[in-house]
Design brief:
Strand order of the largest sheet of chain A: 6-7-8-3-9-10
Strand order of the largest sheet of chain B: 6-7-8-3-9-10
CATH architecture of the largest domain in chain B: Up-down Bundle
CATH topology of the largest domain in chain B: ABC transporter transmembrane region fold
Number of helices of chain B: 20
Number of domains of chain B: 3
Strand content of chain A: 5-15%
Distance between the termini of chain B: 60 Å
Number of strands of chain A: 10
Largest sheet of chain A: 6 strands, mixed
Shape of chain A: elongated
Structural class of chain A: alpha/beta
Helix content of chain B: 55-70%
Distance between the termini of chain A: 59 Å
CATH superfamily of the largest domain in chain B: ABC transporter type 1, transmembrane domain
Number of helices of chain A: 23
Oligomer: heterodimer
């Protein structure tokens, strides 16, 4: 709530110059993703602006002729021209409207890609931060709620152009309303010729426009005042719906009748209920303001009629012209309203757009090193942690504290410890998903921050505990790209123990995993997924291969297979295992024992397991006792 | 999509409108009233706009007294002001009621979704129907809410049509017929396009689903690690580009179809106007109508055509919305293979014996049975372990025992009675379970443990203690009242995999059902934590029947009996020692796992 207030204060501070700068930048970005959108929108605006005036002009000509001379030789060609022009402009407008529609729909999709690309390319530390996700959530919510951010910029652009074209046409069509004088024969009414009346009419127009605009923005403001309630309500609603839609929830939902917890949560915060906040504002101030905003234009129409009809009544022009002037002046007013509305929206949008760019401008601080890691044929790498400490952003407790260790390529390293003791954090630092807060990590004696980021990270293959496969073809999942070397992928899958299952898949490597991307997708079990993830790590063929709980979902036979083959598969690479199944430690040359963020023991299995009272001893015996 | 059109819907338009009206009648009568009021106002505005120019121009043409002229202007301006004010106000006024009504439907629909017989949740056809239902009620412009606008507009159309027809009685009926005909052709064009859209919406939906899948994945922190380690960004970007290109192409095709439809519509409208001009000018020249009369008639003739198109278009929309509502009703009334309210309650007993009698199970569309003729009795109070390799059928066996699936052959008996006769919801109350897939609620810690909004805090703490989560919960700023998850709550706590597993265990303990089902409950725990749970196992299962599913064979030690499942059959059963002595598959498996733990062996 406090934040929301701050934001509002900031929102007031965005100057027009800044607003303009932000929007120009957005326009450049939009043109990059949808090059022709503004041209199409501009053409459409021009045609749309002209059409009503063409109609007004022609019908006024016909009515004028009917009031006066009623010459058939004038009327019939006029009808032909009217029809021809209407058909032509109409066709043009239809073509453009549809183009605008298609373009707009595509644009809204391409806009999403700006954000996903950013999510894919930002530093992991940022991607891991809740604030980043809140940012993106807010941007999407702003766009969905009322098109704030980048979303509506093209249509505001179109509205402004349409308004400008409309105002120009209206001025042309209504100019003679003011210039044609009331003839002297009209007596008192000649007062209408006084230029003050032009001013008066303008004044009324400005007044009405202002009132209408003010009411509209008041009406919108009502909604944003209850924004926080609405946000929570919407989130609870998604949660409520999620309960039935997420497959992994189905069993629990039934055994625990979870709808009984979710439903009251939603009902208590039902923002849409007849007594809820939305109902309160929409039946109260919001509805009234919205009604007034729409209604006042009728008053203006009345004024225009009075002025034009009086002049016509006094003989300044015929009634055909009255229709033209009334049409033109009311259209003028509605275009002025449109112009102000669009300008107002853009002004309001500035602070939202700033949020969008704060997100898109999150800097990449990882990409500063420039050294290449030598592609050593002997793969002789040495990694050293020198007094490394680290805590996750925004937390007080150290996740790692004073960690020092060293290991060479080719060795087998096991990392063990209780949940939360710092094992996974150690891995994240090692492959530079995070940088340490204190101390250094060295590769062949050089601080890893000095290496080119991509180059450094290419040294590692990792199967994380929560690895993810995508709903994409199997082969692409292993290779991480759509065009891959089939034989190598097959080999990696075979090495990971997936050979038999692969043979049973109807489309082989082209088999789609999961159903999200198509109905012909194949659901795979947790164990199978783990094998594919291992294959993916093998395919990358990096000098370091790291396995975080790689066999948690595998049965003993599959686990034994992986273990027995791993030595051979890993070959001269360095393997790091993190596992709760300490049996895997016995393969390893070296074991690191973590406890509360520190390395408390380091050594070989036989030594550590014999050290009574040590952490490893405790861990090992907790498990081994069941296998005596 | 096409097949959807071919199958005759169960309910017709009138029945579906009636169904919606019943929803409105109970609690949202406003919504019904505004259908009529909205139509009346729309016709009123239309008539005011039709008459304003001709009436006022007539006064000018006739050079009537100024007061009369001014009076007419004031009258129309006020009328328009009031009517447009009312229209805009009404739209805001009723919006929340309409949404609220739609929420009632969603609430009922969700109750059905969350309660529908488990096997149906695995059926792709039913899943499709469910997704279609959600799409039909998910937003303001879908059938569940938009139908009120459709009805109101339709009503206005019919009224307007009648009024205009009366107004134009003096004109040549051939003209009206021609106007109606051009309108009908216009409508045919519009209908052609919207039918095309409807037929092809699945294409768009597929792409949109793919697109939202990728945007969702982009927010996954777990995937973020893989993306960086393996350099997936270019691949994902290409995949996304592919989806966007397909969407773009689809929208272009839409554009072509719609442009053609729009052009046909436009030509008809032009023809109609030209026709009206020609006829009315001819009439004016021949019969000496005034210019304002000409204007009135001209606007009325083209307005008449517009009403015809409006009626036809709204009827078409109504038909499609009725189809959507029909889907919603079909899902809500989907026949349940299980008994719920119509079943008998489970007789309460001191102890429960579960028996599988010659049970086989085959998943729909599978070519062979997952389980074959299983005979199994789980005695009251017994601690049973179920072990086996991945894919042996353990999970299916548990699903049968818990009543999630009914056997394709044989029977599942509770104290000798076939469970199919019972209210399945009542049957589920017997089970406390930790499954591999779980559903953490975006509610407080305590509510997640108690699975209820009312809870006994002491018991919640006790269960957390047993599950080994007390320390973590005490650290939280709001203790038991801390919200879980960040999807809903900005201050929610995010638990690690191990902590969630403990929370799920605490939840099962709190429920205190007579039968405890634990499917791999320690997979994410470290050895000490795992050992801790094992130590407490007998305490946790005291006085209960328990089913422990695992492929960590260590865990089976403290069970009374072990079932070793292989290829859908009970391959071996007995105590740990008996099975080891037997020297069969179980013993092999145990040796494979245990040899790494035995001292003095080399690798």
């Amino acid at each position: 709530m406090k934040n929301a207030k701050n934001k509002k204060k900031n929102a007031g501070q965005v100057s027009w110059a800044q607003t303009l700068r932000l929007h120009l930048r957005a326009i450049r970005d939009i043109r990059r993703i949808c090059p022709h959108i503004f041209t199409i929108y501009a053409l459409d605006a021009a045609v749309k602006a002209v059409i009503p005036y063409a109609t007004i002009w022609f019908s006024a000509r016909i009515i004028s002729e009917l009031t006066l001379a009623r010459r058939p030789e004038v009327l019939w060609p006029l009808v032909a021209q009217t029809a021809a022009v209407a058909a032509l402009l109409g066709l043009l407008s239809t073509v453009l409207s549809e183009k605008v529609l298609a373009c707009g729909r595509s644009f809204h999709q391409y806009e999403q890609k700006l954000y996903t690309d950013k999510m894919f390319s930002m530093d992991f530390a940022d991607a891991d931060r809740q604030a980043t996700h809140d940012f993106l959530f807010q941007i999407r919510q702003n766009a969905n709620w009322s098109g704030w951010g980048i979303h509506n910029i093209p249509s505001w652009f179109r509205q402004i152009l349409e308004a400008v074209f409309g105002i120009i046409s209206a001025l042309i069509l209504s100019a003679s309303l003011f210039t044609l004088p009331v003839p002297a024969s009209a007596g008192k009414l000649t007062v209408l010729n006084h230029p003050l009346f032009i001013l008066l009419l303008l004044l009324v127009m400005v007044l009405i426009t202002a009132v209408s605009g003010r009411c509209a923005s008041r009406s919108i403001a009502c909604m944003s005042r209850i924004g926080e309630d609405v946000k929570l309500g919407n989130r609870l609603f998604s949660f409520f719906l999620d309960l039935g839609m997420v497959q992994s929830r189905t069993a629990d939902v039934r055994i625990y009748e979870q709808i009984n917890v979710a439903r009251p949560y939603w009902e208590e915060n039902n923002i849409f209920s007849t007594t809820g906040p939305i109902s309160r504002v929409s039946k109260g101030p919001m509805g009234l303001y919205s009604g007034l905003s729409a209604g006042v234009s009728a008053i203006f129409t009345g004024f225009v009629y009075v002025f034009t009809c009086l002049k016509a009544w006094a003989g300044a022009f015929d009634i055909g012209s009255v229709t033209q002037y009334v049409g033109a002046v009311t259209a003028l007013s509605s275009n002025v309203v449109r112009l102000f509305k669009a300008a107002g929206s853009i002004r309001t949008n500035a602070s939202y757009l700033r949020t969008t760019y704060e997100f898109l401008d999150i800097p990449n601080s990882m990409y500063q090193g420039s050294l290449t890691t030598e592609k050593r044929s002997d793969r002789d790498y040495e990694v050293e942690f020198q007094d490394v400490s680290f805590r996750y952003p925004g937390t007080k407790d150290w996740a790692l504290r004073h960690v020092s260790m060293k290991f060479r390529v080719g060795s087998r390293l096991a990392v063990v410890g209780e949940n939360g003791s710092g094992k996974t954090t150690f891995i994240k630092l090692l492959c530079r998903l995070y940088d340490p807060d204190e101390g250094h990590i060295l590769l062949n004696g050089i601080d890893i921050r000095k290496y080119d980021y991509r180059d450094y990270i290419n040294l590692f293959s990792v199967v994380f505990q929560d690895f993810q496969l995508l709903s994409q073809p199997l082969g692409a999942n292993v290779a991480g790209r759509a065009d891959y070397d089939e034989e190598r992928v097959m080999k990696a899958l075979a090495d990971a123990g997936f050979k038999d299952r692969l043979a049973a898949l109807p489309k082989g490597l082209d088999t789609l995993l999961y159903r999200e991307f198509g109905d012909d997708g194949v659901n795979i079990s947790g164990g199978e997924a783990q094998k594919i993830a291992i294959a993916r790590a093998l395919y990358k063929d990096a000098p370091f291969i790291i396995l975080d709980e790689p066999t948690a979902a595998l049965d003993p036979i599959a686990e034994a297979e992986i273990y027995s083959q791993f030595n051979q598969i890993v070959g001269d690479k360095t393997a790091v295992y993190i596992s709760h199944r300490l049996s895997s430690c016995r393969f390893c040359d070296e074991i690191l024992v973590f406890d509360h963020g520190k390395i408390v023991e380091q050594g070989r299995h036989d030594d550590l397991a014999a050290k009574e009272g040590g952490k490893y001893y405790e861990l090992w015996h907790a498990q081994a006792q069941y296998y005596d | 999509m096409q097949e959807k059109e071919r199958i005759k819907p169960k309910y017709n338009i009138l029945q579906n409108v009636g169904w919606m009206c019943r929803y409105a009648w109970s609690g949202h009568k406003n919504v019904l009233a505004t259908v009529f009021l909205g139509a009346a106002i729309a016709v009123g505005i239309n008539l005011a706009q039709l008459y304003i120019a001709p009436v006022i121009l007539d006064k000018v043409e006739q050079t009537s007294p100024l007061s009369e002229l001014l009076l007419a202007i004031v009258f129309f301006a006020l009328a328009l002001f009031l009517l447009t004010f009312l229209q805009a106000y009404l739209e805001e006024y009723i919006s929340s009621d309409r949404i609220s009504l739609r929420m009632d439907i969603i609430s009922d629909l969700n109750a059905k979704i969350c309660g529908i017989s488990f096997p149906l949740t695995l059926d792709p056809q039913v899943q499709k129907l469910r997704d279609r239902c959600i799409e039909s009620v998910c937003s303001n412009d879908t059938a569940g809410e938009h139908i009120w606008t459709t009805l109101s507009t339709l009503l206005a159309g019919v009224t307007g049509f009648a009024v205009y027809a009366a107004l134009l009685t003096g004109l040549d009926p051939v003209l009206l017929l021609l106007v109606a005909a051009t309108s009908a052709v216009s409508f045919a064009a519009v209908r052609h396009t919207s039918a095309w859209r409807y037929r092809h919406q699945e294409e768009e939906q597929t792409c949109l689903r793919q697109s939202s899948y990728i945007t969702r994945q982009a927010c996954s922190v777990a995937l973020a690690k893989d993306i960086r380690i393996f350099g997936f960004a270019p691949w994902l970007s290409t995949v996304y580009d592919g989806v966007l290109k397909r969407l773009d192409r689809f929208y272009r095709r839409c554009q072509a179809v719609q442009t053609a439809g729009g052009a046909a519509d436009l030509l008809m409208a032009t023809a109609r106007n030209a026709l009206a001009y020609i006829y009315l000018i001819w009439l004016t020249l021949r019969e000496g109508l005034s210019a304002s009369e000409f204007l009135l008639y001209f606007n009325a003739v083209s307005g008449f055509g517009a009403w015809v198109t409006e009626i036809l278009t709204q009827l078409q929309t109504l038909r499609q919305e009725s189809l959507d509502l029909n889907a919603v009703r079909q899902y809500m009334e989907y026949p349940e293979p299980f008994r719920f309210e119509d079943g008998t309650p489970v007789p309460r007993a001191d102890s429960y014996e579960l028996r599988l009698e010659q049970v086989s199970y085959r998943y729909p569309s599978a070519s062979q049975d997952t389980l074959h003729e299983i005979d199994l009795t789980v005695r009251p109070g017994e601690n049973l372990a179920i072990v086996g390799l991945n894919g042996a059928g353990k999970t299916t066996l548990v699903r049968l025992l818990c009543g999630f699936l009914d056997p394709t052959q044989g029977r599942v008996l509770l104290n000798g009675q076939d469970i199919r006769q019972y209210d399945r919801r009542d049957y589920y109350t017997l089970f406390s379970a930790v499954f591999q897939d779980f559903s953490v609620l975006d509610a407080t810690v305590a509510e997640n443990v108690a699975q209820s909004r009312q809870y006994d805090a002491d018991r919640v703490w006790q269960c957390l203690e047993q599950a080994g989560l007390t320390e973590k919960i005490r650290e939280l700023p709001n203790g038991l009242d801390t919200h879980v998850g960040r999807e809903v709550w900005e201050d929610g706590v995010l638990f690690s995999g191990g902590q969630i597993q403990r929370l799920m265990l605490a939840r099962a303990l709190y429920k205190d059902g007579p039968i405890l089902v634990l499917d791999e409950p320690t997979a994410a725990l470290d050895p000490i934590a795992e050992n801790d749970i094992y130590q407490k196992y007998s305490q946790m299962t005291a006085g209960k029947t328990s089913l422990f599913i695992s492929h960590r064979l260590a865990s089976t030690r403290f069970c009374d009996r072990i079932l070793f499942i292989a290829d859908g059959r009970i391959a071996e059963e007995g105590t740990h020692d008996a099975l080891l002595a037997q020297g069969g598959l179980y013993a092999d498996l145990f040796h494979v796992q245990s040899r790494y733990y035995q001292e003095g062996r080399d690798f």
